[in-house]
Amino acid sequence: MTQWTGLAGLLLATLAQASPELGKLHYITEENSPYNYRDGSGMATGFAVELLQRVWQQTATPPQPIDVMPWARGYSQLSKRSDVVLFSAVRTRARDPLFKWACPIDHANIVLIGLTHRHINLDRLEDAKHYIIAAGRADVGEQLLIRNGFQADRMMTSNRFNHAIKMLTSGRADLLSTNKNTFYQRIGELGLAPDQFRVQWTLSADPFCYAFSLAVSDQLVAEFQQGLEQVLASPTYPALRRRYLPE
């Protein structure tokens, strides 16, 4: 009887952690390796995706579909709908009051990168306003430029990260505003040598997070945050991180 009582208690505890409401949200991401991207079969994968799947397990949430779409479209849905979780989103000061947040997935260094042979030197951020800068459309790299007073006619944006990199390598743009880790991961996939590029300026160092529509309840976001913290503290987390984000 004692054994069955213990099993029943464990079952009740598991059910108490179940979160049917987390299963009613719409999960959206973009192509942003190594954090989130499509695998060979078209399914979402990556560090942030596997982290999310472990949060679902921790909160007894059934696996949910993950839509992969251009960042600008996903960001628009996050802003307009009441049930969206968008990742991996950089939590900047300007974005902070616009959404609710569960953090961190990782920390993002948003930088201005140039071609080494161009010998561009920036003594202050204002110096960068003399150059044409590429960025992802609606991406944090573009938003930080706008916030720092860069004019639209000095920026070139694209929905596709590879296209933004091409703007830089072809000389159409002088600098690229982007996440440092993502950039170096992508140029490796494209067969480009890291020493072709140089970080010219760091625009921000903020956490990568899961961003929730403002209408999502504080209680639900807190439940997700608790699940995320439990995953980050788990003994299997370091191996997951090393697999996608080797030092």
From TrEMBL:
Q: Name one Pfam family in it.
A: SBP_bac_3
Top-level taxon of origin: Bacteria
Q: Which residues form the Solute-binding protein family 3/N-terminal domain?
A: 30-246
User: Keywords, A to Z?
Assistant: Signal
Q: Where is the signal peptide?
A: 1-18
Would the keyword Signal be found if you checked this record's keyword annotation?
A: yes
The record's listing under PANTHER family reads: PERIPLASMIC SUBSTRATE BINDING PROTEIN FAMILY 3, SOLUTE-BINDING PROTEIN FAMILY 3_N-TERMINAL DOMAIN-CONTAINING PROTEIN
Q: Give the protein name, as stated in the record.
A: Solute-binding protein family 3/N-terminal domain-containing protein
Species per Swiss-Prot/TrEMBL record = Aeromonas enteropelogenes (Aeromonas trota)
The upper taxonomy is: Bacteria, Pseudomonadati, Pseudomonadota, Gammaproteobacteria, Aeromonadales
